[in-house]
Amino acid sequence: MNPEEKLAELGLKLPPAPKPAGVYKPLIITGNLAYVSGHGPLRTDGTLMTGQVGTDIDLEGGRAAARQVGLTILATLKEQLGSLNRVQRVIKLLGMVYATSDFLEHPQVINGCSELFVDVFGPDKGVGTRSAVGMGSLPGKISVEIEGTFEIRS
Amino acid sequence: MNPEEKLAELGLKLPPAPKPAGVYKPLIITGNLAYVSGHGPLRTDGTLMTGQVGTDIDLEGGRAAARQVGLTILATLKEQLGSLNRVQRVIKLLGMVYATSDFLEHPQVINGCSELFVDVFGPDKGVGTRSAVGMGSLPGKISVEIEGTFEIRS
Amino acid sequence: MNPEEKLAELGLKLPPAPKPAGVYKPLIITGNLAYVSGHGPLRTDGTLMTGQVGTDIDLEGGRAAARQVGLTILATLKEQLGSLNRVQRVIKLLGMVYATSDFLEHPQVINGCSELFVDVFGPDKGVGTRSAVGMGSLPGKISVEIEGTFEIRS
After folding, report:
1. To which H or E segment does residue A33 belong?
2. ipTM of the complex
3. Is the whole model's pTM more than 0.80, yes or no?
C-alpha cells in the first residue's frame, strides 16, 4: 500500500494544513528534498494543543501532542506536494518539547510523531534521523513543535 | 532591483561580518546550498544586543534584535559570497529566542529578521521555511540567534 | 594521515555506536550528505554523562561532555559508513547544551566536540558551520546533545 492508501486504511483524519503564523512558507523544495517549517499540534477543529510537559500535561499528553504535530505535517505535505505518495522517505526531524527543566523522556514524546510516520510511510522509509530535545518556551505554549526534511519524488 | 541595489536603496548599514566565536566557519557551500552558522545580533559598533525577552527586553526589543541578526547574516553572506546577488533564495531559518518560560510570541520576534530578508531578497525569494522557538539560554545572553540555509548561484 | 590513521595515532577510544533511544536511525545518506541524529555523551562503559552545566557541572565538565559526544558521533560514522575515511568534511553541527538560564559560554562547551573533529579530520575539513545554544532540558539530563551533517565520499 502507498501512503495515501495507508492513510485511508488507518482512518486518519488530518487537520487543515496550517496557515503560516509569520513570515515563512510551510514547505520548500530544493533538489529532491522538501524542507518543512516547524509545525505545532493543530487539532481538526483548528485549536492547538498547549501546555508544558511535566506540569500542565504528562508524558502521554506530550506523546499525543507529538502525534498531532505529525498529522499536521502530513496535512502540509499533502497540500503542498499534491499527494503523500510523493514522499520518498523521512530524512530528518527536529523534535522540540516544551518541558520542565528536569524532564527526561523527550524521545518517548517525539515517538508519537515518529510512530505515525512509520504507520503511513512504512518501517524503513518512515524512519529518519532525529533529535528530541527540550525547549525553554514555544510559541503560544504549544507542547511540541517539529520541523522536518523529506526526500521526495519529482 | 537586485539584492545589492535593494540594500543600497534602503540605506541599510551592515555590521562587520563577525569573526567566529569558536571552532566553526561562518558559512559553508555544498552543492547549491550555503549553510550559515548561528548568528547573534551584532551592532555596527561591534557590541551584541543582549537580554532575555520577557524580562530584560520586550517583544519590540526582541524584534529589533532579530532584525539585527538578519543584518549580521547579510554581512556574512556578502563577505563570504562576494555579493548578495549570489543568493538565489532563503531555504530555511532556525530562529532561537532567549525568552522566559511563558513567552508566547516567538514568530513575531523572528519576523524582525524575516521581514528584512523580504525587503532585500523580495516577497518570494526572501521567504523560506522557518522554526521560531524559545531557548533556555544563549551565548553571552544574546536575545536572538538565527542559523540559515540559502540557495545560491554558482 | 587519513582520519582512521589520525584516530589510531591519537589513541582515541570510541564508545560503542549507540542504539537509537527511539524511533529513528543514527545516520541517513542522501546525495553526498550524511545526516547524523542527535547524539549524547556516551562513555565507553555504556553510561551517559549527565548534569546541568552551571549547577551540576562546570564549563570544563561541559567541554568534556561535548568531546564525548564527538567520540560517540565518530563511533556512529565509523559503524554506519564502514570507515571514517569516507567523511569528506564537516558541514554543520547543532550543539545543544543543557545549561542554566544565565549560562554564557556555549561556544566554549561545544568546542570540546569541534576540537576533536579538527584533530581527526584536520583544520579545514574538520571545521563546519555551527550553532551552540542552551536547552531547557535534554533526554535523561545529558549535559550535551549534538546533531550533525557531513559531506561524504561515495
Report:
1. strand A33-39
2. 0.97
3. yes
The residue extents of the domains of chain B are 3-11+27-152
| Helix H or strand E encompassing A16 | none
- Quote the CATH superfamily of domain B3-11+27-152: RutC-like (3.30.1330.40)
Nearest CA in chain B to C152: B30
Q: How confident is the model at residue A61 (pLDDT cuts 50, 70, 90)?
A: very high
The whole-angstrom separation of Cα B17 and Cα B12 is 14
Instruction: Tell me the C-alpha distance between C34 and B138, whole Å.
Output: 27
Residue with grid cell 547573534, as numbered in its chain: B40
CA distance A132 to A113: 11
Nearest residue to C145 via CA among B41, A53, A129:
A129
Tens digit of each residue's pLDDT (9 = 90 or more) over A43-53 = 999 999 999 99
Cell of A101: 527543566
Residues of B with CB under 8 A from a CB of A: 31-33, 91-94, 97, 99-108, 110-111, 114-115, 118, 127-137, 149, 151
C3-9+33-152 CATH fold: 60s Ribosomal Protein L30; Chain: A; (3.30.1330)
The pLDDT tens digits of the residues spanning C14-66 come to 999 999 999 999 999 999 999 999 999 999 999 999 999 999 999 999 999 99
CATH of A27-152, one of 1.20.1250.20, 1.10.600.10, 3.40.109.10, 3.30.1330.40: 3.30.1330.40
Hey, what's the torsion of the CAs at C80, C83, C87, C90, to 10 degrees? 70
- Contact at 8 Å (CB) between B85 and B3? yes
The whole-angstrom separation of Cα B153 and Cα B7 is: 19
List, for residues C124-153, the tens digit of each pLDDT value: 999 999 999 999 999 999 999 999 999 999
**Mean of per-residue pLDDT scores for chain B:** 97
Q: Which of C13, C21, C6 is nearest to C120 (CA)?
A: C6
Which positions in chain A touch B149 (Cβ < 8 Å)?
35
For chain C, how far is it from start to end, CA to CA, in angstroms?
20
Residue A36 CB neighbours (<10 A): 23
Taking the alpha carbons at both ends of chain B, their separation in whole angstroms is 20
Residue-wise pLDDT for B56-101, tens only, equals 999 999 999 999 999 999 999 999 999 999 999 999 999 999 999 9
How many Å apart are CA A133 and CA A110, to the nearest integer? 9
- Closest chain B CA to residue C31: B31
Question: At B17, phi and psi to the nearest 5?
Answer: -60, 125
